[in-house]
């Protein structure tokens, strides 16, 4: 089937029921998207589909064929980081880092919907789990990125 990942058309041979996460990681070697729980609870596997944050561990790849998939590899580059990535560095958000690509993708979806999110907006949108407890710095970085983009 044809997938559109980070703006590029990619052909994969996969059972349509295969979770998008496994297609990304195992078939395409795009390992920036992480496996945490496998049951849509932690958010480590978050990618965007048509702009919305989606938990790829429970998303059958067949349901996203032909739709715009964005992964952490497509958010920004070292030379040209997304505002969120620059803010993440400025606020020194990550500790172990494992949850962070999912956090960034959820935050990117939030900022597209709400360019100046309130604390309540952030709490509602950011349901990702971080075992290192980076929540306060995640919130600060989202606000910093919103300010940078304004
Ligand atoms: S691995 Fe998908 S939500 Fe935890
Ligand atoms: S930074 Fe370690 S789990 Fe979030």
Provide tags for this entry.
5-stranded mixed β-sheet; 2 domains; DNA polymerase, domain 1; 5 strands; binds FE2/S2 (inorganic) cluster; 35% helix; 5 helices; alpha+beta; Ubiquitin-like (UB roll); 150 residues
Question: What does the model show?
Answer:
- The protein is an alpha+beta fold.
- It folds into 2 domains: 2-74, Ubiquitin-like (UB roll) (Roll); 83-149, Orthogonal Bundle (DNA polymerase, domain 1).
- It contains 5 helices and 5 strands; from the N terminus they run E-E-H-E-E-E-H-H-H-H.
- Strands 2-1-5-3-4 form a 5-stranded mixed β-sheet, covered by helices on one side.
- Helix 2 packs across helix 5 (135-149).
- It is globular, with a radius of gyration of 15 Å.
- The mean pLDDT is 97.
- The structure holds FE2/S2 (inorganic) cluster (2 copies).
- One FE2/S2 (inorganic) cluster (FES) binds next to loops.
- Residues 1-75 form the 2Fe-2S ferredoxin-type domain.
- It comes from Ramlibacter monticola.
- This is (2Fe-2S)-binding protein.
């Amino acid at each position: 089937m044809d997938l559109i990942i980070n703006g590029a058309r990619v052909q994969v041979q996969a059972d349509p029921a295969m979770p998008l996460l496994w297609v990304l990681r195992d078939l395409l070697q795009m390992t920036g998207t992480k496996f945490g729980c496998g049951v849509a609870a932690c958010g480590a596997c978050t990618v965007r589909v048509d702009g919305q944050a989606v938990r790829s561990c429970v998303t059958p790849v067949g349901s996203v064929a032909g739709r715009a998939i964005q992964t952490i590899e497509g958010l920004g580059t070292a030379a040209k980081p997304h505002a969120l990535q620059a803010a993440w560095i400025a606020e020194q958000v990550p500790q172990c880092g494992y949850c962070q690509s999912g956090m960034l993708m959820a935050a990117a979806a939030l900022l597209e919907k709400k360019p100046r999110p309130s604390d309540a907006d952030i709490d509602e949108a950011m349901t990702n789990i971080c075992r290192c407890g980076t929540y306060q710095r995640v919130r600060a970085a989202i606000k910093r990125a919103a300010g940078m983009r304004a």
